């Protein structure tokens, strides 16, 4: 069953997602289905998406919901654990890594405040598994003042991501920009309406030369 079909037939806790997110989820998460997985979802909401991820990823998935509302601990069940703390607190995030190890996937659907989104990403992204996925959704909030956003405002996650495009391609910059850890450990970035996805990974030499007979 697809995630969209699961959402349409959901009889568990409420799930609040934009419709166009579901193909994005499946495009980037499909290789993790039915494999051992640690999944961090920042922002628990009503707990329904945690149950959806449990159904989607299967019996080997460990789903960790992160929120600041203590009452959300009641959403714990088999394969689903809740930890209470602020997403922008690096000490709290480190405690999650100490307890659960590096996540394979992080999905940020938390406060949507730009300073929080940036802080979580800067701490967690270098620490997810070497072939992990980091997804930030609801990034329309990057344009809204009440979420510390604004068009081309330098402190938004959208503007940070624009600079990371240059870092991704730093090896081709002819010394204008030195390669970084992000350069060396990121395979791709994907931009969608309100969503950005980062795929980690390392490569050997990117230059390929074939020598053969004409």
Shape: globular
Helix content: 25-40%
The radius of gyration over CA amounts to: 18 Å
Amino- and carboxy-terminal Cα gap: 49 Å
Largest sheet: 7 strands, mixed
- Name the strands of the widest sheet in spatial order: 3-2-1-4-5-7-6
Mean pLDDT, as a whole number?
94
| Share in β-strands | 15-25%
Q: Count of helical segments?
A: 7
Order of helices and strands: HHEHEEHEHEHHEE
Number of strands: 7
Task: Report on the architecture of this protein.
- It is a single chain.
- The protein has helices at residues 3-8, 21-29, 48-57, 90-100, 114-124, 157-168, 181-184; strands spanning 37-42, 61-67, 80-84, 105-108, 133-136, 186-192, 195-200.
- With 214 residues, it is an alpha/beta fold.
- The chain is built from seven helices and seven strands.
- Strands 3-2-1-4-5-7-6 form a seven-stranded mixed sheet, sandwiched between helices.
- It is 29% helix and 18% strand.
- Helix 3 links the parallel strand 1 and strand 2 (61-67).
- The model has no long low-confidence stretch (mean pLDDT 94).
In a nutshell, what does this entry contain?
The protein is 29% helix and 18% strand. The protein is of the alpha/beta class. It is globular and about 60 Å long.
Annotation keywords:
18% strand; 214 residues; 7 strands; alpha/beta; seven-stranded mixed beta sheet
Write the layout of secondary structure elements.
Layout: H1 3-8, H2 21-29, E1 37-42, H3 48-57, E2 61-67, E3 80-84, H4 90-100, E4 105-108, H5 114-124, E5 133-136, H6 157-168, H7 181-184, E6 186-192, E7 195-200
Parallel strand pairs: 1-2, 1-4, 2-3, 4-5
Antiparallel strand pairs: 5-7, 6-7
């Amino acid at each position: 069953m697809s995630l969209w079909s699961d959402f349409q037939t959901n009889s568990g806790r409420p799930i609040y997602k934009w419709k166009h997110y579901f193909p994005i989820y499946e495009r980037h998460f499909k290789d993790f289905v039915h494999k051992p997985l640690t999944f961090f979802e920042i922002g628990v909401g009503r707990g329904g998406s945690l149950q959806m991820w449990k159904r989607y990823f299967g019996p080997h998935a460990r789903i960790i919901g992160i929120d600041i509302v203590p009452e959300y601990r009641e959403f714990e069940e088999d394969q689903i654990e809740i930890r209470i703390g602020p997403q922008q607190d690096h000490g709290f995030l480190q405690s999650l890594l100490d307890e659960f190890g590096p996540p394979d996937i992080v999905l940020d659907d938390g406060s949507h405040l730009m300073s929080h989104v940036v802080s979580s990403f800067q701490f967690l992204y270098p620490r997810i598994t070497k072939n992990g996925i980091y997804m930030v959704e609801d990034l329309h909030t990057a344009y809204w003042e009440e979420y510390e956003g604004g068009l081309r405002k330098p402190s938004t996650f959208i503007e940070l991501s624009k600079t990371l495009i240059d870092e991704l391609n730093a090896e081709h910059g002819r010394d204008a920009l030195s390669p970084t850890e992000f350069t060396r450990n990121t395979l791709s970035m994907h931009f969608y309406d309100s969503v950005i996805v980062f795929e980690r990974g390392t490569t050997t030499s990117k230059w390929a030369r074939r020598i053969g007979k004409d």
